[in-house]
């Protein structure tokens, strides 16, 4: 078990998204991918006076060589060192194994995502329901996925298959599982849009939202135009409340360092303080740009009452 005493501003995803939906904006969920960049994401939220979600997926933990405990320790250390006062969520993104979810919850994560979207509907329900029972008993929020969100870089998911979320299935899925948030497939993809252009099926989003009260999540936010996002979270009756951004952060880091190839977390940790400072500033500016462009109005977010 972790020894973290959770600061009052480290909250669950459910609490954060309730506020976002009421304000008709979405909160950015940013994956720093390297532990030294957690500070950059947190600093961006503080500077923008905006609630913010710091996340990492199971595949990212493996690819970059990080444990949930290492990620959680750095998150809580930086919340304290940087005197972060805005509401923050520590979220485990795309994960298929209960063991990793349990490890993350022990490490102080306040939100987890079970992704059984490649399985048949009944199996997805069974796995998601199991995680909901486990996580809710520990005061942790749960996100699940219905439909399949495509990918262009295979960092977060394994396949480039895309299967749009069926609104009626979404209604049934939420009722049976009790999840707090639902990632839906409606046209975006993980990674960089090299050929395929991003699009959002607003009619599908509206139909899903009309049939279920659950908070909706849009994965694959990197490269999606701001005006597209704004329309998605301002839909009548409530639209998207959480937008995931990962690839754009890593691209800005690598560009600032004059690199093309990604690093391991160990390589990032071994950079000189000067190089780390350059990288952090680039990531921070990217996050602030995303929040100002489409994710969250600092004026609205500043009214968040804990």
TrEMBL record:
CDD domains: TBP_aldolase_IIB. One of its GO terms (molecular function) is aldehyde-lyase activity. Zn(2+) 1 binds at residues 94, 190, 219. Dihydroxyacetone phosphate binds at residues 191, 220-222, 244-247. The keyword Zinc applies. The keyword Zinc applies. One of its GO terms (biological process) is carbohydrate metabolic process. InterPro entries: Aldolase_TIM (IPR013785), Class_II_FBP_aldolase (IPR050246), FBA_II (IPR000771). Gene3D superfamilies: Aldolase class I. Binds 2 Zn(2+) ions per subunit. One is catalytic and the other provides a structural contribution. The active site is at residue 93. Pfam families: F_bP_aldolase (PF01116). This is Ketose-bisphosphate aldolase. It comes from Paenibacillus sacheonensis.
């Amino acid at each position: 078990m972790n020894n973290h005493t959770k600061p009052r501003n480290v909250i669950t995803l459910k609490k954060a998204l309730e506020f976002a939906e009421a304000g008709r904006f979405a909160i950015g969920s940013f994956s720093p991918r390297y532990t030294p960049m957690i500070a950059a994401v947190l600093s961006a939220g503080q500077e923008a006076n905006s609630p913010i979600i710091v996340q990492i997926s199971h595949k990212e933990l493996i690819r970059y060589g990080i444990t949930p405990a290492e990620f959680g320790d750095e998150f809580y250390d930086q919340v304290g060192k940087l005197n972060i006062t805005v509401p923050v969520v520590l979220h485990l993104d795309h994960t298929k194994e209960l063991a990793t979810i349990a490890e993350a919850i022990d490490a102080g994560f306040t939100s987890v995502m079970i992704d059984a979207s490649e399985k048949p509907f009944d199996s997805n329900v069974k796995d998601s329901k199991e995680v909901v029972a486990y996580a809710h008993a520990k005061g942790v929020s749960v996100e699940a996925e219905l439909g399949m969100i495509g990918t262009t870089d295979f960092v977060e998911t394994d396949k480039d298959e895309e299967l749009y979320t069926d609104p009626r299935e979404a209604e049934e899925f939420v009722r049976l599982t009790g999840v707090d948030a639902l990632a839906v497939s409606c046209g975006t993809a993980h990674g960089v849009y090299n050929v395929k252009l991003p699009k959002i099926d607003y009619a599908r989003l509206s139909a899903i939202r009309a049939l279920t009260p659950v908070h909706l999540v849009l994965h694959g936010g990197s490269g999606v135009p701001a005006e597209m996002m704004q329309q998605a979270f301002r839909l009548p009756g409530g639209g998207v409340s959480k937008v995931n951004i990962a690839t754009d952060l890593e691209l800005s880091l690598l560009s600032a360092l004059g690199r093309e190839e990604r690093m391991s977390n160990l390589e990032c940790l071994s950079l000189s303080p000067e190089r780390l400072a350059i990288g952090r500033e680039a990531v921070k500016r990217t996050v602030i740009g995303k929040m100002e462009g489409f994710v969250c109005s600092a004026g609205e977010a500043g009214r968040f009452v804990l």
